[in-house]
Amino acid sequence: MDRKKIAIIGGGNLGSAIAEGLVFSKIFPNENITITRRKVHLLENFKARGLNVLADNAEAVMNADIILLAVKPYQIIDILIEIKPFLTSNKILVSMVAGISFQTITKETGESVKLFRAMPNTAIAICESMTCLSYPKQSEKSKDDILELFNKLGKTTVINEELMSAATVLGACGIAFALRYLRASMQGGIEIGFSAEVAQFITAQTVRGASELILNSDHHPEQEIDKVTTPRGVTISGLNEMEHKGFSSALIHGLVTSYRKIEHDNK
Q: Rounded to 10 degrees, what is the CA torsion of 146, 148, 149, 155?
């Protein structure tokens, strides 16, 4: 993998997070990483670390083995038209554009290019992403390379393409939902006496511990909840009050609303 060259088309929030993760992980030498953006001055921090910073998408694709598309849905058709002449059969194209199907991409690129869809989240910057991956049958022979790439940037699971919109909501939007819980818990911590700094530290480490309990045990969350909810206890009193106020219902409604938004926007 370290002999290959990779190009990130779109140096916005997600593209920059991916670049940070690639630098952090040392999968590729910095000089083998290219990132593009129209306003290249916004990528000076990457240039200073030896990455190739370009405004020309075609040049980036021409010199890359793996191309990661991290652009807005409304931009993708124009960009595919721009880079199509350089998408030879030996290259791998990975789209991280929400709601844009294989069918739509292939219509512009043809079927010779090896194509994947991936939905990481911004924790990819510290190699802690949850990435959902999908690919058509013709890309089967390249799946190990792409799985290796994203597994070094966090955790990866392969899903059917029809679940990519749901993956966007649960995994990518999910970062914001989890952080909103963390913020609310922190605010509560301040109200009961902690400084902001200490409340943030306790809350963040508690959320990390809760996640590791599930990831390392494969237990259902309720199994772990049961361990800290004793009869007439403090924990169950707080949990029941949250449920009375619609905690779980509000979260589920938020997820479903985000999903419907993706589905509506891409009809």
A: 110
* Among 124, 120, 69, residue whose Cα is nearest residue 91: 69
Question: pLDDT band at 23, cuts 50/70/90?
Answer: very high
Concatenating the DSSP letter of every residue in 42-96 gives GGHHHHTTT-EEES-HHHHHHT-SEEEE---GGGHHHHHHHHGGG--TT-EEEE-
Q: In 158-167, which positions are buried (b, 16+ CB within 10 angstroms) versus exposed (e)? A: eeeeeebbbb
The structure tokens listed for 216 are 């390392």
> Which run of H or of E encompasses 34?
strand 33-36
Q: What is the pTM of this model?
A: 0.90
**Structural domains of the chain, with CATH:** 6-159 (3.40.50.720), 168-265 (1.10.3730.10)
pLDDT, one tens digit per residue, over 98-139 is 989 999 999 999 888 899 999 999 999 999 999 999 999 989
Are 207 and 221 a contacting pair, CB within 8 Å? no
Tell me phi and psi for residue 66, to 5 degrees. Answer: -125, 130
Report which DSSP code applies to 105: H
Residue 39 main-chain phi, psi, to 5 deg: -90, 80
CA neighbor of 68 nearest in space, from 15, 135, 145: 15
